[in-house]
Amino acid sequence: MNDEPVDDRRLLTRAVALAANCPPSDTAFSVGALVVDDTGAVLAEGWSRMHEPHDHAEEAALRSMGPGWSAGPGTTVYSSLEPCSARASRPRTCTELILAAGVQRVVFAWREPAVFVEGAGAELLQAAGVHVVELPDLADAARAPNRHLLDR
């Protein structure tokens, strides 16, 4: 792994900004995500509803890495929202996809509120040995494209 520190705040800010690309929805959050290697190079990016109406941001970013892709040492997923731990629209949650890819680190801004499901992605990832970092000072920016869901 590279000895140079990776700028989590800069990369998470970029993931948060990707949420602006999401088509609006009344039934799902707008989220942005990045897959980044140990040097800080962005390998993939994704956002909610990127290709299909049920795409989650982490799912779209990981899918763009190709079938059977496996994370190298030091790979980090940056997400504006805590990776989902429950969903009705697809068989696998983003937490499961992150674990299946072998990602060792996840950085997120905003804990999933109980608007649609109870979120436990951070806890499940930590229990599986993934290093999880929360940067809550970026949560307001992550909430911004989702105000219509929160102010009901």
TrEMBL record:
Domain CMP/dCMP-type deaminase, first and last residues per copy: 6-132
PROSITE patterns registered for this protein in UniProt: CYT_DCMP_DEAMINASES_2
Source domain of life: Bacteria
Database matches in Gene3D superfamilies: Cytidine Deaminase, domain 2
The record, for InterPro entries, names: CMP_dCMP_dom, Cytidine_deaminase-like
UniProt cross-references to PANTHER family, sorted A to Z: CYTOSINE DEAMINASE FAMILY MEMBER (PTHR11079), RIBOFLAVIN BIOSYNTHESIS PROTEIN PYRD, CHLOROPLASTIC (PTHR11079:SF162)
- Identify this protein by name: dCMP deaminase
Traced from the root, the source organism's taxonomic lineage reads: Bacteria, Bacillati, Actinomycetota, Actinomycetes, Pseudonocardiales
